[in-house]
Amino acid sequence: MAGLGRYLLQSVQSRDYPAVQGGLAFFTLIVVATSLATDVMTAWIDPRVRR
């Protein structure tokens, strides 16, 4: 069962630093995009948040 998490773990174990940096950047982008989408939807649903 292959996936990004397993690939990232194998990259850490084999000291493949470019792959580790790319994987962490990808996961960071996902977290930031999710947080931004949550904030935008919250402001859209509840107008009291917009100040």
List the helices and strands and how they pair.
Layout: H1 4-13, H2 17-45
Helix pairs in contact: 1-2
Provide a short characterization of the protein structure:
With 51 residues, the protein is an all-alpha fold.
Which key terms come to mind for this protein?
rod-shaped; 51 residues; transmembrane helix; 76% helix; transport; single chain; mainly alpha
Could you please describe the fold and organization of this structure?
The chain is rod-shaped, with a radius of gyration of 17 Å. It is mainly α and 51 residues long. 0% of the residues are buried. Helix content is 76%, strand content 0%. Helix 1 (4-13) runs antiparallel to helix 2. It has helices spanning 4-13, 17-45. The chain has two helices and no strands. The mean pLDDT is 91. It has one domain (4-49).
Instruction: Give the percentage of residues in beta strands.
Output: under 5%
Which range best describes the helical content: under 10%, 10-25%, 25-40%, 40-55%, 55-70% or over 70%?
Answer: over 70%
Distance between the termini: 47 Å
Query: H/E element string?
Result: HH
> What is the tally of helical segments?
2
Unreliable residue stretches: none
Shape estimate: rod-shaped
Number of strands: 0
Look at the helices and sheets and give the structural class: mainly alpha
How many domains make up the 3D coordinates?
1
Domain ABC transmembrane type-1: 3-51
Membrane topology: Multi-pass membrane protein
Keywords: Cell membrane, Membrane, Transmembrane, Transmembrane helix, Transport
Protein name: ABC transporter permease subunit
